[in-house]
Design goal:
Blueprint: H1 23-29, H2 38-42, H3 53-66, H4 70-81
């Protein structure tokens, strides 16, 4: 009979501490909770419309100049044109 080979336990190499995150990575990964308008938090539905590329560009430029998103600007426009209290 042959002898069984001895059981070899794996040698573990100690690992040092994990390096700290650099400030840029921390800034990129930070989570900012977006502000949701009150009406949007109740219920939202997607509305898709077709516009020309020129009109889309004008909408985006105007929204940028006003410092808001195109979606927010169009929501305000629709709210003005189609108020809830229409009889």
């Amino acid at each position: 009979m042959t002898a069984l080979p001895p059981v070899v336990t794996p040698h573990r190499v100690p690992i040092g501490r994990r390096p700290g995150a650099d400030p840029a990575s921390t800034w990129v990964r930070q989570v900012d909770a977006p502000e949701i308008p009150a009406k949007a938090s109740i219920y939202t539905a997607r509305l898709t419309i077709d516009v020309t590329p020129t009109l889309r560009g004008r909408i985006k430029v105007v929204a940028f100049r006003r410092g808001i998103t195109a979606a927010d600007m169009l929501r305000e426009l629709l709210e003005r044109e189609y108020p809830e209290d229409v009889a």
